[in-house]
C-alpha cells in the first residue's frame, strides 16, 4: 500500500504558523519600559522612527514629565502595540498614532469567512467577544484554515478593531491622556490632550468611512441613527460620552462626532503639585478643609483646568463618605466606593436636567454633592444643599470673585445675594503663557467671610495668592476657615491653632513626597486612606524615613 508523499513545504509553513500563533499575544503586551524594548516588540515603530529627522524622547508615564508645553517631542505607549508621538511648536501641534500596519482588505475578508464557518458549527457562544474571536483565530491558524500571509498580530489587531472595537477610534480610546476626540466632518481627527491641549492627528478618514463607522456603533449600542434621527448620545463601556451629529443637511461638512473621554485613572493632586499648578502647602490646606467638609467652587475660563483640579481634590474627601456626582458629561472619576454617579439625559426619552438631578440628590443623604459645572437654575438648589448641611463641590466659568458673585446672583441662576456667603471657598485657576509654554496655575484661593448688605459686596480673605513673576504660590499667613470651621469641628480651641498648622505642614511634606516619587492617583488615594486610619503623624514619620506612606508594617 502506497502512502501519499508529504507536502514538505506545507508542513514547514504550518510549523512556522504554530510559532507565529504565540506572537499574536503581541496585542496583549503592556507598555514597554524602554525604547529599545518597544522597537524590538514592534518593528513598525522602528520603521516610523527611521523616517524622523529628530528622535523623540520616550516615556512610559507622562505624569513624570515636568513643564510640558510648546516645542515638545515625546513618544509614549498606550498599550496593545500602539504608540503616540507628540510634536508641538508649530501652528497646530501634532498627535501621531503609530499602530500595527493594516493588512490588505482581502486578508481580513478571508479571516472573517474562516471564523464565521467555525462559529456556525458552535452551539452556544458566550463570554468576552474579543477573547472568543482571538481563540478562534488561533485555532484557524493552527489548523491551516487561513492562508493569509503576513504578521498575524497585525492581522488579528485590525480584525478585532473592526468587529468588536470602534474602528479607527480605538487608539484614541486607549489613551488616558485624552479628554476629547472629534472630527468636524471628513478629514483629520482632532484631540484635546490633558497636557498639550488641542492637537491635529495623523489619522484621516473620508465621509463614507465616518458614516459607516457611526452607523455601526449606533446599531451596536441599540440606537437608531438616520436622517430623521440625526443626533444621538451614546455612553461607551468606559463611561465616555459619544455624541453624533449625522448627515450633511445639518452638518455641512458631513457627519461629525465628539467623544468626551472618561479617564480610568485621572490626574492626581500630586501631579498638579509636580507641575506647579498648585503648591504642596495649598494642597495640604485643601486636604484639611475637605476632610472637615467645606463647600468649594473652582472657577476659571475655558481650558483653565477646573475639572482636572476638582477631580484631583476629591481624593481628599474622607474614604467612607457617600458622594453623589451630577454631570452633563461624565468627567468626574473618584475612588470612593459609596459613589452615586448621575448624568443628564437630554436627547432621548424624557429630558432629565441638572436641576432635576440636584433636587433628587438632596433626598439621597450624601456627605458630598459634586456638580460637574453650574450653569443654570441648578445653582439655586446647590445653595439650598449647602445651607442644609450638604457640602458641594463644583466648577464655574468666572475669572474673579466679582464675576462669580455676578453670575450666581443673575439670571438664570438667581441665588439671593445674602445667601452667596454660604459658600466657603472660591478657587480661581487660569491658563497662561510663560515663555513659549502654556501653563495652568491656581491664581488665588479665597475664603468667603460674609455678605455686606450696605454696599452689596462679598467680604472675603485670600488665603493663597500667585506671584506670576516668581511662578510661586504664597500663603497669606492666616485662615478664617481653619480657625472658625476646622478647630470647632474637631472640638479644639484657638490655643490649638499652632498644632493644626503643624499638622498641615506634615500633610504638605507627605504630598511633596508623592509629587516627587509616586504621583499617581492610586498612590494619593492609598495615602489618604492611611491618614484616615492611622493619623497624619504615622504617615509623616514613614515619609520622613523615606518609606512609602501607605505601606503597613
Structural summary, described in words:
The strands form two sheets. This protein has a ten-stranded mixed beta sheet with strand order 1-2-3-4-7-6-5-10-9-8. Strands 13-12-14-15-11-16-17-18-19 form a nine-stranded mixed beta sheet, with helices on both faces. 36% of the residues lie in helices and 22% in strands. It is of the alpha/beta class. Mean pLDDT is 87; it is low at 1-23 and 66-70. Strand 18 (457-467) and strand 19 form a beta hairpin. Among the domains are: 1-177, no CATH class; 269-396 and 476-544, P-loop containing nucleotide triphosphate hydrolases (Rossmann fold). Helix 4 packs across helix 5 (129-142). The longest helix has 21 residues, at 497-517. It contains 18 helices and 19 strands. It has helices spanning 8-23, 35-41, 43-50, 105-120, 129-142, 152-163, 170-174, 207-220, 269-275, 280-292, 306-313, 354-361, 378-387, 401-409, 480-489, 497-517, 521-534, 536-544; strands spanning 57-58, 73-79, 82-87, 93-98, 178-183, 187-193, 197-205, 231-235, 241-245, 256-260, 296-300, 323-327, 339-343, 368-371, 392-397, 425-434, 437-452, 457-467, 472-475.
Amino acid at each position: 500500500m502506497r502512502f501519499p508523499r508529504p507536502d514538505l513545504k506545507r508542513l514547514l509553513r504550518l510549523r512556522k504558523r504554530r510559532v507565529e500563533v504565540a506572537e499574536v499575544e503581541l496585542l496583549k503586551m503592556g507598555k514597554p519600559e524602554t525604547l529599545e524594548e518597544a522597537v524590538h516588540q514592534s518593528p513598525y515603530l522602528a520603521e516610523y522612527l527611521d523616517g524622523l529627522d529628530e528622535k523623540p524622547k520616550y516615556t512610559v508615564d507622562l505624569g513624570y514629565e515636568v513643564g510640558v508645553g510648546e516645542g515638545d517631542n515625546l513618544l509614549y505607549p498606550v498599550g496593545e502595540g500602539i504608540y503616540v508621538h507628540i510634536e508641538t511648536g508649530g501652528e497646530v501641534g501634532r498627535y501621531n498614532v503609530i499602530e500595527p500596519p493594516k493588512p490588505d482588505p482581502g486578508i481580513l475578508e478571508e479571516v472573517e469567512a474562516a471564523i464565521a464557518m467555525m462559529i456556525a458549527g458552535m452551539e452556544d457562544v458566550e463570554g468576552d467577544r474579543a477573547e472568543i474571536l482571538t481563540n478562534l483565530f488561533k485555532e484557524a491558524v493552527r489548523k491551516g484554515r487561513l492562508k493569509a500571509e503576513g504578521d498575524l498580530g497585525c492581522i488579528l489587531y485590525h480584525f478585532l478593531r473592526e468587529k468588536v472595537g470602534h474602528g479607527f477610534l480605538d487608539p484614541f480610546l486607549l489613551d488616558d491622556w485624552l479628554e476629547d476626540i472629534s472630527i468636524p466632518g471628513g478629514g483629520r481627527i482632532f484631540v484635546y490632550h490633558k497636557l498639550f491641549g488641542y492637537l491635529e492627528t495623523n489619522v484621516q478618514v473620508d465621509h463614507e468611512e465616518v458614516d459607516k463607522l457611526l452607523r455601526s456603533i449606533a446599531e451596536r449600542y441599540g440606537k437608531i441613527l438616520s436622517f430623521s434621527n440625526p443626533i444621538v448620545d451614546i455612553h461607551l463601556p468606559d463611561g465616555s460620552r459619544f455624541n453624533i451629529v449625522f448627515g450633511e443637511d445639518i452638518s455641512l461638512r458631513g457627519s461629525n462626532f465628539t467623544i468626551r473621554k472618561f479617564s480610568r485613572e485621572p490626574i492626581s493632586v500630586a501631579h498638579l503639585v509636580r507641575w506647579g499648578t498648585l503648591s504642596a502647602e495649598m494642597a495640604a490646606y485643601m486636604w484639611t478643609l475637605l476632610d472637615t467638609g467645606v463647600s468649594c467652587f473652582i472657577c476659571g475660563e475655558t481650558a483653565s483646568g477646573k475639572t482636572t483640579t476638582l477631580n484631583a481634590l476629591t481624593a481628599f474627601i474622607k474614604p467612607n463618605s457617600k458622594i453623589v456626582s451630577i454631570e452633563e458629561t461624565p468627567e468626574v472619576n473618584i475612588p470612593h466606593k459609596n459613589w452615586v454617579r448621575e448624568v443628564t439625559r437630554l436627547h432621548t426619552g424624557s429630558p432629565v436636567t441638572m436641576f432635576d438631578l440636584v433636587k433628587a440628590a438632596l433626598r439621597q443623604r450624601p456627605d458630598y454633592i459634586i456638580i460637574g459645572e453650574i450653569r443654570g437654575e441648578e445653582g439655586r438648589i446647590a445653595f439650598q444643599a449647602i445651607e442644609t448641611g450638604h457640602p458641594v463641590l463644583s466648577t464655574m466659568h468666572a475669572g474673579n470673585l466679582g464675576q462669580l458673585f455676578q453670575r450666581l446672583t443673575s439670571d438664570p441662576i438667581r441665588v439671593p445675594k445674602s445667601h452667596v456667603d454660604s459658600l466657603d471657598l472660591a478657587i480661581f485657576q487660569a491658563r497662561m503663557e510663560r515663555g513659549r509654554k502654556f501653563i495652568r496655575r491656581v491664581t488665588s484661593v479665597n475664603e468667603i467671610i460674609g455678605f455686606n448688605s450696605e454696599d452689596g459686596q462679598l467680604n472675603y480673605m485670600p488665603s493663597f495668592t500667585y506671584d506670576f513673576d516668581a511662578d510661586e504660590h504664597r500663603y497669606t499667613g492666616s485662615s478664617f476657615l481653619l480657625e472658625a470651621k476646622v478647630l470647632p469641628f474637631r472640638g479644639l480651641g484657638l490655643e490649638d491653632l499652632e498644632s493644626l498648622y503643624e499638622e498641615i505642614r506634615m500633610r504638605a511634606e507627605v504630598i511633596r513626597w508623592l509629587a516627587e516619587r509616586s504621583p499617581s492617583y492610586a498612590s494619593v488615594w492609598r495615602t489618604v486612606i492611611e491618614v484616615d486610619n492611622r493619623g497624619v503623624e504615622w504617615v509623616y514619620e514613614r515619609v520622613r524615613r523615606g518609606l512609602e506612606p501607605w505601606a503597613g508594617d
